[in-house]
Amino acid sequence: VTTIGEWAFSDCGSLTNITIPDSVTTIGEGAFYYCESLTNITIPDSVTTIGEYAFHNCDSLTIQCNSGSYAEKYCKKNNIKYLVTPDGL
């Protein structure tokens, strides 16, 4: 799997914790839109594209990522809570 498609898991209330595999490079638009129960997602350095609204209305979410990664930049740009993993993912 290299891509999590657009709106793939939108409005999926049962998701709570996700680890994206290293094979994934793209998280599509709205992929996790309105996943209210999602509290933690780990995004590896392999992800270099995250679409608009990918985590919209995921109010309890904290994204775990590496310092300097695309995911960290995405979080800063979109005001999403994140945690930099000190030893790398």
Concise summary:
This protein is 10% helix and 21% strand.
Shape: globular
Low-confidence stretches: none
The structure class reads alpha/beta
Secondary-structure element pattern, one letter each? EEEEEEHE
The radius of gyration is 12 Å
Helix content: 10-25%
Strand order in the sheet with the most strands: 2-4-6-7
Q: Ends: how far apart?
A: 18 Å
**Major sheet size, sense and barrel closure:** 4 strands, parallel
Overall average pLDDT:
95
**What fraction of the residues are assigned to beta strands by DSSP?**
15-25%
Number of strands: 7
Number of discrete helical segments: 1
Q: What does this entry look like structurally?
A:
- By secondary structure, the chain is of the alpha/beta class.
- Helix content is 10%, strand content 21%.
- The strands form two sheets. Strands 2-4-6-7 form a four-stranded parallel beta sheet, with helices on one face. The chain has a three-stranded parallel beta sheet with strand order 1-3-5, with helices on one face.
- Strand 6, helix 1 and strand 7 form a beta-alpha-beta unit.
- The longest helix is centred in the last third of the chain and has 9 residues, at 70-78.
- The protein is globular.
- The mean pLDDT is 95.
